[in-house]
Amino acid sequence: MKKGFIYFFAFVCICFILPAVLTQGITTSSKAEKHEEKNEEENVESEYVYNKYGTIKLLHADTNQVEEVAMDTYLCHVVSAEMPVDFEKEALKAQAIVARTYTIYKINNKKHDNADICDDSNCCQAWISKEDRLARWDGDKEAKWNKIEECVKETNGKMITYNNQPINAFFHSNSGGKTELPVDVWGGGSNMPYLQVVETSGEDGYTQYNSEVELTKEEILEKLKTKYADIQIDFNNNEDIKILEYTSSGRVKTIKFGNHEISGTEARSIFGLRSTNFEISKEEEKIKFTVKGYGHGVGMSQTGADSMAKSGSTAEDIIKHFYVGVEIKDVNSL
Asked: What is the pLDDT of residue 285?
């Protein structure tokens, strides 16, 4: 009897239970494979494929070597070099779009014979290696780098256009509350109507907003003599050091030093000022420059972008505030 029951139980297992278990295993395996395939498809779809501009030639100014690098990889290094990582994500995303646009503009308007763009911020835009960037950061360094990568990836393929062409997307650190016209910095820019004077609140909360430079009378003369050997100043005459004209944004356009009248941008360079938005005062044997803002003031203010992001503005809001009459389009649509 017991022997018959064992035979019967074995028969049921072979005919019914075992096939069901095997079928379930196959189904589960099939679902897992499909899930993996779906994830792979999603990952492929998330990667932006440039019709052009996908690879750029980057000139490293210190070595004079040219490196070919993927556009969005390059942008991670630019954004991490140009904007503090603790800024709001929407500000960093705006910076990523601005940097992509600036790069494409440079590719189409070459400044270097053997490269599209260089890593010298005085010439093109800043760039830093990941190794050097991580070495300078504190705290969770990989999390910070991941934040930069996310901001670049979330703006994949986006660029700023005016009349369906990429703009010359200038940017700077702090506008001192109001941006500047390019004509008042470089003497040109009439072909860039998207670069206008715009106001931005909240920039006074950043360390880049206020600065001072104090120089002795002798230092003033020495610095001016590097450009004007015949400089003569009567420091007892208030008319010998005097701001003569301001730009439409309130920056110094022309200033008099004794027997010479120079531009505000030249004064900024000679005396090492953070911007041309300054006032002058005499304090005993010293001349003090009280400065607002940091940078040339044209285009997007980075601290202004962060201030706007803190108030709820998106990357697109920020861009359309600082660049007048522009559209944000897909690179491949042009």
From this structure: 86
Q: Measured between alpha carbons, how far is 92 from 98 in angstroms, rounded to an integer?
A: 10
Q: Are residues 305 and 284 part of one domain?
A: no
Whether 129 is in a domain gets the answer yes
Q: Reduce the DSSP state of residue 67 to 3 states and report it.
A: strand
Query: Is 90 a member of any domain?
Result: yes
pLDDT > 90 fraction of the chain, expressed in percent and rounded: 82
* pLDDT exceeds cutoff 70 at 140: yes
- Total tally of structural domains belonging to the chain: 2
Q: Are residues 301 and 283 in the same domain?
A: no
Note whether residue 46 is domain-resident. Answer: no
Distance CA 111, CA 20 (A): 70
In this structure, the answer to whether residues 216 and 112 fall within a common structural domain is no
Range of the domain at 215: 210-292
Range 10-40 burial, b when 16+ CB lie within 10 A, else e = eeeeeeeeeeeeeeeeeeeeeeeeeeeeeee
Please enumerate, as own/partner, the contacts of 71-74 that have beta carbons within 8 Å and a separation of 24 or more. 71/100, 71/103, 72/48, 72/152, 72/153, 72/156, 74/103, 74/127
> Do 306 and 250 fall within a single domain?
no
Query: pLDDT of 278-332, one tens digit each?
Result: 999 998 889 999 999 999 999 999 999 999 999 999 999 999 999 999 999 999 9
In this structure, the answer to whether residues 162 and 191 fall within a common structural domain is yes
32-76 confidence digits (pLDDT tens):
444 444 444 343 345 799 999 999 999 999 999 999 999 999 999
* One domain for residues 74 and 109: yes
State residue 46's pLDDT score: 57
Same domain, 320 and 188: yes
Burial (Cβ within 10 Å: 0-12, 13-18, ≥19) of residue 220:
buried
